[in-house]
Structures are given as structure tokens and as C-alpha cells.
Amino acid sequence: MISFTFLSILLYFVLMLAIGFYAMRTSTSDNSEYLLGGRNVSPKVTALSAGASDMSGWMLMGLPGAAFINGLDSVWLALGLLIGAYVNYILVAPRLRVYTEVADDSLTIPEFFSKRFSLNNSSVRIIASLVIILFFTLYTSSGLVAGGKLFESGFDLGYETGVLITVSVVILYTVLGGFLAVSLTDFVQGCIMFIALAMVPLFAMGQLDNLSGITSLITSDFVTEVASKDALGWLGVLSLMTWGLGYFGQPHIIVRFMAINSHKDVKTAKNIGMSWMTVTIIGAVLTGIVGLHYTQQYNVAIDDPETIFVLLSQILFHPLIAGWLLAAILAAIMSTVSSQLLVSSSSLVEDCYRIFIHKEASDKELLFASRLCVVLVAAVATGVAFNSDSGVLDIVSSAWAGFGAAFGPVVLFALLWKRMTNQGAIAGVLAGAITVIFWKHAPVLANGDALGSVFYELLPGFIVSSIAIYAVSLMTDEPNEKTLSQFDKTQSIINE
């Protein structure tokens, strides 16, 4: 049985490495191509790459696990994510694509934050790069945790072995082919995830007795849940829906918009991306809910709810197909891990190495440094991931809130408000990050819990960051003429 499953996984690994070699020969002549694919990525690849790198292992493990435990409460999280992703395509994607090129061809988000104010090496660039390195190390580890759990539950391998296999393959194709390899593998991985998240819940539903009765029960449960919520219950709904705010500040997602062929292709990417996301996120929630009914009907034991997709794949399908479905989890994991490794590497090289160590580094040296940093960040994240008690969704929620609050308001103000200043941006990044950390960890409640146990830390961090940006910008000198000119030029191009 395992040999068939492993065959599917091995074929998947071979495909990912083949794409890495192709990208290495096609788009790694300099660091610009390595980090952004030469800004020549098609809308369909951009859309599925953004979606696959966004959803990660939590889409096939964390979210189904949450739906398995909490039922239809997970719908609110899914709805918040859909709204956030849609608004991100409308407000951020086209403007960021144009503005990063107008602002002296910025290759990273921290570099854009600096060059938005006509500065090469401002404090906001350094601070933003440190935030990226800190939170992405944590975020990357969540994907490796998911990989370890997959190999442990699906193949009876040790958790640490699963982590090492996952990170090894990702390092290989990312080091080889850079952004193009990551984007193309994301496209393939997105297609695999789409089919898998449609197949598993549908086949599981087909095995249930009285399917129409269960469907009616789910519908009535949702109606009852909505009708019975009091003010505290709706506060919980708001807490879940605020996940959508995180999209504006996720470097591994919005960097995709910087690399698309043209801002005019964003509309096509949006249509493809939102269609993909709607189907996959509904499939993930249904996997958890239907999985609960399936395990109850057939009296199937499950130790970890986050492995419900793995369990259903193994029970319902032939081992060869089950291996392909498990490859969908690997696809989700690897697409995000590779994106995060590349963004972390770009910050280390472009925003740290190039500024503090070797300002006149050659393209060849920068390319080597980028590849080396991919390995270094992966090594640290692997060490964090060896704590197998970590929950995938818990780790993702912390990193998602950190980026959303620290970068989201700065990105929006940078693209939409001409008056924002460098000092305002610095205040926003620091205020958002500090608020999230305090809200998540400070034991300020009477029972010793943190405020994050009551309400998700993203919205408070987002609000505090926005206030800091606005207030500090008004208290400091207006941006210089070059900065204002860049802003006007961007708006003119967008409005053409």
C-alpha cells in the first residue's frame, strides 16, 4: 500500500525538481530575475501562485481541522478571507505593480517602503526587513510542521523525518530556480489543490447515510447558529472575519503582484484567483464538517483533527490516488514555504547584505548570497518546526497577524495617501508589530490569559498601526517633490 502512495509522492517530487531546473536555465541570470522573475509572469500563474502560496498547509490541515472541531464557525473565517483577498486585488495589486517599478524598480517590500519616500536606505527599510525575517521564520516553520504531520500520519515515518524531507525538496527547487521556479511550481500545486479539495469532500459525502438529511442538518445548524448569537457571539464572528485584513500586508502574496506582466493583467488574475480560492476554501471547510459526520457514522478514531484530510484520502481512495491526494498537501505546504524562503532571502540580501556588508556587490555575488540565505532561513525554521506540539493554524495565525498589522496599513497608506511620511511608515510598522505581540502574549486578563484569547490580535494591531501612521505623518514634514511626483505618476498610469 505504501509503495503505491510513495510512487505518487516521488513523481510529484521529480516534477517539482524538473521545474526548478527549467527555471534555473530560463530566469536566473541576475538577482532581479531570481527574486521577481523579471516582472514577466502571466496572470494565470500570478493568480494561482498567489493563492497557493497564501493557503499553505493550513488550507488542507489547519482549516479542515478547525471545521472538524468548531463546525460552521469556520465559515466566518473563510468569508473574511474571501473578502480580504478580493479587496487586495482591487486596491493593492495594480497600484503596487506600477508603484514598485516607478519607485526606482524596487525588488522587495522593505525597499519599496524606503524608495516610496525617495530614500535608498531609510530606517523603515531596515525595520521592515527585520520584521520579515522574524515573522517569516515562524511562518515557514508552520509549513514544515504540516509536512512533518503529513509524513507521520500518512506514511508512518517519524515527525522529524517528515520535516526534513519537506524542507529538502523545497530548498532544492527554490535555490535552483528562484522566483520563476516558485511561481511555476505554485501554479502546478494550485491545480492539484483545486482538484483534491473538490474530490475528497464529495467522495466522503457519497459514503454517508441519509445525505440529504445531513445537508439539511448542516443548513439548519447554520441558521440556528446565526439566530442564536448574542453580542459576545458576534464579537467572535468579527474576530474570525478580521483575518481578511491580513492580506494587505503579506509579503509572500503581494510580491506576486509586483512580478505580473502588467497592471492591466490584474483583472484577469483576480477572476482566476478568486474563482480558485472560492472552490478550495469551501472544499476545505466541507472536508472538516463532512469528515466529522463520516468518523461518527463509521466509528473511526482520529487523534489529530488537523489530519482529517489525510484520513479520508487513505480510507476512500486507492493507494495510488491517495498518494496523489497527499501530494496536494505537500503542494500546499511547499508552495508557501518556498515563497516565504525566497522573500526572507530577498530581505536578507537586498535590504541587509547590500546595505551593510557590500554595497557594490556584483550580480553574481548577490545571486549566490540569495541562494545561501534560502538555505540559512530554512535551517532556522526547521529547528523551530521540530517542536511537534505546535498547531499549524496557531502558528499561522500569529505570523498572519504580525504581517497584517505591521505591513498592511503601511502598504495601503503608501498606495492611497500622498501625505504619508517616512516617519509615519516607521511608526506604523513598529506600532502594528508591538501591538500584535502584546495582544497575543501579555497576561493582562484576570485569569492570566492574554487579550488574544478573547479577540484575534490582527484588528487591534491594524487599528493602532493606522492611527500611528496618520498622526505621525501629520506631525512631520510633507514628503519632498520627487516623492509626490512618483505618487502622481503612479496614479496617472493606473487611471489610463
TrEMBL record:
<feature type="transmembrane region" description="Helical">
    <location>
        <begin position="124"/>
        <end position="142"/>
    </location>
</feature>
<keyword id="KW-0915">Sodium</keyword>
<protein>
    <recommendedName>
        <fullName>Sodium/proline symporter</fullName>
    </recommendedName>
</protein>
<dbReference type="InterPro" id="IPR011851">
    <property type="entry name" value="Na/Pro_symporter"/>
</dbReference>
<dbReference type="InterPro" id="IPR001734">
    <property type="entry name" value="Na/solute_symporter"/>
</dbReference>
<comment type="similarity">
    <text>Belongs to the sodium:solute symporter (SSF) (TC 2.A.21) family.</text>
</comment>
<feature type="transmembrane region" description="Helical">
    <location>
        <begin position="276"/>
        <end position="295"/>
    </location>
</feature>
<dbReference type="Pfam" id="PF00474">
    <property type="entry name" value="SSF"/>
</dbReference>
<feature type="transmembrane region" description="Helical">
    <location>
        <begin position="424"/>
        <end position="442"/>
    </location>
</feature>
<dbReference type="GO" id="GO:0015824">
    <property type="term" value="P:proline transport"/>
</dbReference>
<dbReference type="GO" id="GO:0015193">
    <property type="term" value="F:L-proline transmembrane transporter activity"/>
</dbReference>
<keyword id="KW-0472">Membrane</keyword>
<feature type="transmembrane region" description="Helical">
    <location>
        <begin position="231"/>
        <end position="255"/>
    </location>
</feature>
<dbReference type="InterPro" id="IPR050277">
    <property type="entry name" value="Sodium:Solute_Symporter"/>
</dbReference>
<keyword id="KW-1133">Transmembrane helix</keyword>
<keyword id="KW-0406">Ion transport</keyword>
<feature type="transmembrane region" description="Helical">
    <location>
        <begin position="454"/>
        <end position="472"/>
    </location>
</feature>
<feature type="transmembrane region" description="Helical">
    <location>
        <begin position="75"/>
        <end position="92"/>
    </location>
</feature>
<feature type="transmembrane region" description="Helical">
    <location>
        <begin position="162"/>
        <end position="184"/>
    </location>
</feature>
<feature type="transmembrane region" description="Helical">
    <location>
        <begin position="398"/>
        <end position="417"/>
    </location>
</feature>
<keyword id="KW-0813">Transport</keyword>
<feature type="transmembrane region" description="Helical">
    <location>
        <begin position="6"/>
        <end position="24"/>
    </location>
</feature>
<feature type="transmembrane region" description="Helical">
    <location>
        <begin position="366"/>
        <end position="386"/>
    </location>
</feature>
<keyword id="KW-0029">Amino-acid transport</keyword>
<comment type="function">
    <text>Catalyzes the sodium-dependent uptake of extracellular L-proline.</text>
</comment>
<dbReference type="GO" id="GO:0005886">
    <property type="term" value="C:plasma membrane"/>
</dbReference>
<keyword id="KW-0997">Cell inner membrane</keyword>
<dbReference type="GO" id="GO:0005298">
    <property type="term" value="F:proline:sodium symporter activity"/>
</dbReference>
<keyword id="KW-1003">Cell membrane</keyword>
<feature type="transmembrane region" description="Helical">
    <location>
        <begin position="315"/>
        <end position="337"/>
    </location>
</feature>
<keyword id="KW-0739">Sodium transport</keyword>
<feature type="transmembrane region" description="Helical">
    <location>
        <begin position="191"/>
        <end position="211"/>
    </location>
</feature>
<dbReference type="InterPro" id="IPR018212">
    <property type="entry name" value="Na/solute_symporter_CS"/>
</dbReference>
<keyword id="KW-0769">Symport</keyword>
<keyword id="KW-0812">Transmembrane</keyword>
<dbReference type="GO" id="GO:0031402">
    <property type="term" value="F:sodium ion binding"/>
</dbReference>
<dbReference type="InterPro" id="IPR038377">
    <property type="entry name" value="Na/Glc_symporter_sf"/>
</dbReference>
